[in-house]
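Practice problem 4.
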């Protein structure tokens, strides 16, 4: 990918975000997290220089390597992948600015335990399987509000900021819409939640129209 291509992609996406968010309200601010999992550190640097500050990875090892290469840049690193138990300590050591993929009470318990040992906290989102797809991680939408509350009460080194979900994997936009509406309804019921992370390259405009305030865009930026 050439530098010009990356910046052109970023500009196009920002224009689309701007249009979509203004349909919701003048005050509906949407944060763009550039998902760099298929990209090189040099592409991240190009977008950084164009003004992008938040980047996300889905593997702890990749996050660690890219952080190391780009350590001189004040990037906000996000983690969006499934976290295996044996990688929890490694993720804590990366100090992510936000972890989007807390996908079970069990993981919350383990993460909290390891955070306490290191005397650290982590900002996290509860991942919800709003499309009810077996291939996807996340808690059952019917239990999400209760799990959110339990994590807030019991696992005090986890600082829950809101929720995350991946839209339905479908060509049928009504299915995608439905999964976003389910996510948004849960978001509204979670006390203190401020971040609703939903929307990717193929569906972020629909996600914003349905209340998303953080989108995770990979392929549309880095192609
Ligand atoms: C890869 C990934 C994205 C970005 O997907 P694109 O379709 O490439 O924009 C967003 N969220 C998560 C959790 C991902 O793993």
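Answer key:
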């Amino acid at each position: 990918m050439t530098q010009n291509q990356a910046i052109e992609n970023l500009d196009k996406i920002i224009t689309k975000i701007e249009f979509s968010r203004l349909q919701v309200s003048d005050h509906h601010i949407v944060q763009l997290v550039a998902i760099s999992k298929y990209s090189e550190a040099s592409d991240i640097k190009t977008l950084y220089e164009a003004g992008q500050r938040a980047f996300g990875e889905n593997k702890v090892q990749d996050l660690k390597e890219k952080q190391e290469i780009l350590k001189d840049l004040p990037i906000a690193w996000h983690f969006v992948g499934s976290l295996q138990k044996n990688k929890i300590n490694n993720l804590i050591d990366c100090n992510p600015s936000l972890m989007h993929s807390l996908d079970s009470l069990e993981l919350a318990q383990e993460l909290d335990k390891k955070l306490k040992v290191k005397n650290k906290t982590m900002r996290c989102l509860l991942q919800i399987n709003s499309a009810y797809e077996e291939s996807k991680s996340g808690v059952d939408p019917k239990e999400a509000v209760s799990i959110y509350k339990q994590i807030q009460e019991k696992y005090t080194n986890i600082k829950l900021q809101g929720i995350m979900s991946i839209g339905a994997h479908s060509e049928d936009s009504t299915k995608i819409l439905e999964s976003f509406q389910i996510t948004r309804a849960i978001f509204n019921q979670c006390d203190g939640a401020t971040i609703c992370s939903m929307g990717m390259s193929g569906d972020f405009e629909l996600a914003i129209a349905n209340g998303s305030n953080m989108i995770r865009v990979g392929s549309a930026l880095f192609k």
